[in-house]
Structures are given as structure tokens and as C-alpha cells.
Amino acid sequence: MPHRNSIKTLLIVDDSRVSRMMIRTFVLAKHPNWIIIEAASGNEALEIVDRDTPNYCTMDINMPGIIGTEAAEQILAKYPSIRVAVFSANIQESHQTRAAALGARFVAKPVTEKSVAQALEFFECNK
Amino acid sequence: MNPLTELQVDTLTEIFNIGAGRAASSLSEIVGDPVMLSVPRVQLYQSSEINAEVLSLNSPRLGAVKQHFSGPFNADAMLLFTEDRALEIVHDMMGSQVSINDIAEFEQEAMCELGNIILNACLSSMADILKLTLDSSLPVYSVGETNAVLQQIILDANQPIMLVLHIDLAIEKRHSQGYLVFLLSSSSLQELLAHIDHFISGI
């Protein structure tokens, strides 16, 4: 049984500041004590993960530098215990399939309370 | 000319990113191949400044699909792309049903449909996110010498401001560049920005 109130660290990876702000707001509304870290690119996310190793990660796909699915693949290869939700507007089947193959959950943008809840559900479900 | 704040640009970019993502999904189903998208870039211009050079349109000929959107603000939305690539995309859409020699015959209809998908995906994501309703007219396709097409568009719309959204769109090996262009009046732009600000303040 996961502890709903335990402190977790979430890394939000998105080149859009507005999207990061929205994800942060919706997550903190449910989990006010979580620690939120933000990255504006996949490359930045890789550095942060090595330094801070979050519990969870939301990952956009279309970003400058390496694309999100590539970053997610590298993160999961190194840290398989991090739960990654690929959070993207790029809802093509090929991306959804790739996310599933990586063991990540695909969540379609826009960022809403509902879509954030889908990511949270995946983060907190039993492995 | 760029009186938009960083957050306004970010919000518009993200709205169009979501729209382009929806469009790419439909497009990829139509052509049967994955579609790669770049991060959209949003920029404001005076209509009088616009020409092929400003938009870095290197092709001598240009195809344009135009639709008029109306609601809390009005805009002429256009999808611009180079014509040679348009034919390749039409070929991908029609697959083996049509020979390459006959493809031009279907160009008008296929490009209208394509423009309809992409423009509506972008505008409907804007409408959903900003919680407003936008109605659209039927798409119209025109093709011709690049600067002539651009000048005609500007003349027809008779609006001073152009909101240009630049997206690189690649279907498998066929690299194509598309521009989404919105022509609006200053009052429509102010109305759009008011909706954007309202959205940002609600985060």
C-alpha cells in the first residue's frame, strides 16, 4: 500500500514554462509535500536525474535537443525504478507504442486536472 | 515587432504544440507513416513586412490553404507549404490508388482536406484550452508564385497583424516545412491576448 502522504520527488520535463507551472499546480494540489524539480529539456533532465534521482518523472516529447521518449529511454535504462509518464501533445500511435515499450505511461496533453490525475495514478499504483 | 510577453509566447506555443500534435496524429494515420514535428515558433509581424524572405520560404511556388475563423476574435488562418512537397504529401495520402501522373488532379481536394485537419486541430486546441468557441469556414486552396500568393493573402485579409507559427513537419523521409499564419486585426489580437492572460492567471 503506497503511503499517500509520504514525500516524493517529481521531475517535470517540459520546454513550456506554462505546462510545467500547470503540472506543478495540479500535483501540489493533491500532494502539497512533494518536492518538484523542473527541467526545460531532455538533456537537462538527464543531468538532474543523475544528481537528484526523483521517484517520478513527467516527460514531454517535442522539445529542443533530444526528444522526450529518447530521454525517457535513457533514464529508465539507468534507473528502472523511476516511474515515467510521457506527457505529450504528440499523440501519434508510434509515440504511444514507444512509451508503452519503455514501461512508461502515455498521457495525452493538454495538461488538465484529469490528465495529471492519470499520471499520478500511474505513479502511485502498485508495481 | 514582438509586443508579446514571454508567458504569452509560451502559452501560444504550447497551445499550437498541442494542436500540431493532434494534427500530426491524424496526418500519420492518413499517410500511414510517423510524422515528426518540431517545437513550434511563434512570432508577430506587421502584414506589410511579410514576404518570402522574411518567412524563409525558399521555394519559388507556394500552396496555401485558408480558412476563416470567427468567435470572440476573428482570424484568417492559413497553412503555407511549398508546392513540390504538397504533391508528395498528396501521393502519400492517396497511396497506390492514384498514379503519380494523375496526382495533380487530386491536389486541390487533398490539400484542402489536409489544411482542414491541421488548421482545425490547432484552432480547436486553442478553443478548448482557452474555453471559447470558434467557428470555421470551408477551406480554400490556392497555389502560385510564392510572393504573389503571400501578397494576395495579405490583400484579401486586409488585416494589419500576422501571427506566424513556424512548424517543421517531416513525414518519414519527406522533409517538409509548414507555416501556420493567422491574420488578425489589432482588436482581435488584443481579445486573443486577453483570453491568454486570463488563462495564465488561472494557473
Short synopsis of the structure:
By secondary structure, chain A is of the alpha/beta class. Chain A has one domain (9-124): Rossmann fold (3-Layer(aba) Sandwich), CATH 3.40.50. Chain A has helices spanning 17-30, 42-52, 68-78, 93-102, 113-124; strands at 9-13, 35-39, 56-59, 83-88, 105-108.
CATH topology of chain A: Rossmann fold
How many structural units, i.e. domains of chain A? 1
As a whole number of angstroms, the C-alpha radius of gyration of chain B is 16 Å
- Evaluate the radius of gyration of chain A: 13 Å
The second-level CATH architecture of chain B is 3-Layer(aba) Sandwich
Low-pLDDT runs of chain B: none
Mean pLDDT of chain B: 84
Major beta sheet of chain B, specifics?
8 strands, antiparallel
- Give the CA-based shape of chain A: globular
Residues in β-strands, percent of chain B: 25-35%
Outline type of chain B: globular
Please count the beta strands of chain A (DSSP E, at least 2 residues each).
Answer: 5
Q: How does this structure look, described?
A:
The complex is a heterodimer of chains A (127) and B (203). Chain A contains 5 helices and 5 strands. Chain A has 127 residues and is α/β, with parallel strands linked by helices. Chain A has a single domain, classed as Response regulator (Rossmann fold). A 5-stranded parallel beta sheet of chain A has the order 2-1-3-4-5, with helices on both faces. The radius of gyration of chain A is 13 Å and the shape is globular. Chain B has 203 residues and is of the alpha+beta class. Chain B has one domain (6-201): Chemotaxis protein chec (3-Layer(aba) Sandwich), CATH 3.40.1550. In chain B, 46% of the residues lie in helices and 28% in strands. The interface between A and B is medium-sized, with 20 and 26 residues.
